[in-house]
Amino acid sequence: MKERYDFQAIERKWQQDWERNEIYGVSEVPGARKHYVLEMLPYPSGALHMGHIRNYSLGDSVARYQRMRGRNVLHPLGWDAFGLPAENAAIQHGVPPEKWTLENISKMKDQCKRMGFSYDWAREIATCLPEYYRWNQWFFIQMHRRGLAYSKKGPVNWCERCQTVLANEQVVNGLCWRCDTPVMQKDLAQWYLAITRYAEELLQGLDGLTQWPEKVRTMQRNWIGKSVGAKVRFPLEESDAGIEVFTTRLDTIFGATFLVLAPEHPLIADWLGQAGAPEELTLMVEQARSQDRRIRTDEATEKVGAFTGRFAQNPFSGERVPVWTANFVLMEYGTGAIMAVPAHDHRDFEFSHKYQLPVRTVIVSNGEQGLPDRPTEAMTEPGVLVDSGLYSGMTSQQAQQAMGELAEREGFGARTVTYRLRDWGISRQRYWGTPIPIIHCPQCGAVPVPEEELPVLLPKMEGVQMGGSPLQKVPEFVQADCPRCGAPARRETDTMDTFVDSSWYFFRYADPRNDSRPYGPEPVKYWMPVDLYIGGVEHAVLHLIYMRFFSKVMRDLELVDLEEPVKRLFTQGMVIKDGAKMSKSLGNVVSPDEIVREFGADSLRLFIQFCAPPDGELEWNDKGVEGCSRFLKRLWRVVFQFHQGLRPAQDFPHFDQLSDAERKVLRKLHQTIQKVTADLERFHQNTAVAALMELLNAVTEYADQDGARPEVLSQMFDPMVRLLAPFTPHICEELWRELGHEGSVVNAAWPAYDPQLAREEEIEIVVQINGRVRARVGAPAEVTLEGMKELALADPRVQDFVQGKDVRKVIAVPGKLVNIVISG
User: Fold this and answer.
1) Which terminal Cβ of the chain has fewer Cβ within 10 Å, N or C?
2) With a threshold of 0.85, does the pTM exceed it?
3) Which DSSP string do the residues of 418-435 spell out, in sequence order?
4) Rounded CA separation 810/824 (Å)
5) What are 264-274's pLDDT values in tens digits?
């Protein structure tokens, strides 16, 4: 054993050994208890950042721990390799997206290996490869057969100058991120997946995900947005048409003083197409349609509207109601039309105040007398109905029931349930994605590509140009024959949203080389569900809902028999520096490569798990990494000092033959084993590492004493190395061999603690007098309640306080506290 801790040589040595011996390879072992640990699929941007390092270090410590506990551990990694950044790089630099992506994958894979992450690289996937995206296409075809995949016109962000569709994140302050042209809303034919068919099931399933963070479940519930209410039809004057609205407050319908349609509502389009359409209305609709939908629905956004010149009739009161359009109503929510009740809705109240529209109070609190001429704010709580015809005097609940029954009986409405969730639009007018396997035939319509012809290969493109869908510019790709009638046809040129790629990849890891199906039933039955899934909370809604949706579709396709794909979810906190999230744009990025070169992978792994709770923000601190590096050097030095004289475990003397110092350090060891085990089970890596640092302090203190015995230290070093192995695997491999072991510490058993040895021989009892702490006394760990009282009353400091007083009561809390109640 060399005296100097040469982390660079040690880490290279063991990384090569692990790879050469495929030590992290895993297969199904019948009867063995499995544990599937997974970090969210990374995008190959070209370099790992500290967020990656934190995520993967946390997952790796759990995977290594579970393996040492005897579990059969699946711990894979792959690449979310399609997507817009690669296409942007191709446009900016003239580099083919495939070349850019595969080079980035190679760099990031090398970084993962340099960090010593225990991935089974034999299961690596990249979603941009045909052997993977073939099955995206296969799933699409299965959904299309069942009506879950369909096409319809839908609004998209459109840049007229670039002639292309923009993702929401490419719209900056209403302008195209490339050319600053105002972005407009345009209706284009889009492909959708009918996730709304599973809305109620997705909502109810959240109740069973008890090992998911509550904040994530709440975010999903809000995104699904279940609303129980009624649909009501308002007849239009001088027309056979009507306007259907959905409301959760049918009890307020007598206070509906106007209707509001979304600017995208079909009726608005019809009216604008007629002669004499008001110029003010045309201008307002054009402006609203060009406004970002997220901005339109933001509470801080100014509410802008226009009167359409049309009127409808309130089906309950018979009152004539004006019809408006406004930017805050979206076509994709509800029916694209609302009844505005300004007295009882904050948004409607604000709009009516701006345009001087009537406000009518129809709900009052119980016992309230009289009605305000014009209220100063909306009253949104349920109450008692007033000025509501036959329903006046009813409570809101009573009125909703009675009104719903009348609407159903008369045929102008019905009680119903709606969801905020909308079907998933997967069409992207981009190149770097999975081709949608549809052929458009003039005679047969949209025809799926036959399964035996999959995959529909993405054609090679040396340069991707702006303007429309890039695949439209590849004639040999677009031109195809109809699979049904053989006539000349046109291939679909949209590609799939990359969320499709990441919605089922964890199933593929179970059987990554299967070329006849997405995965085999037996491997998936063995490995799924994922036992622990780790990733950022920013994926709490879209990715995790789409993932759950895909799993339910797979169940209905009889590909799996599970309800939910992930048992336990953990969302790690962000890495921040100088008070902000690490970002290239802010110039506060710290390169993992530089830290590894200076301090080693083990020091970085240790720091990033020690310096903050895993679910909290991690403030980057260079001195913290240095501190972790010093800790490892201290460990190395103390083992080097004694390793040659260490005796085998069978020579260890009986506990009763140990000195006080030896019993103390041995007790600390067993307490640390107990704590680190519990902390790793509950994902508290930071406190586990802190306990290991305290243990090293105790061992060093003992080793520095005269008469420190090698046979005692031999009992300390072996379990210490095993406890540290999940956090700092390289140095632990080296020390494990230096301690005389033949095999890898990766396969060593997790140390067990002795509850008796972990118990303190003496405990401290707090003594209170009339609730104030007056003394602390030592007591044997097994002391009884009566013994605690006797020790407390016998303490000289306590006797000084109670002398001459009447002791009325003595209360003892086992092992902790004695409270003496005295008079005076």
Assistant:
1) C
2) yes
3) EES---EE-EE--SSSPB
4) 16
5) 999 999 999 88
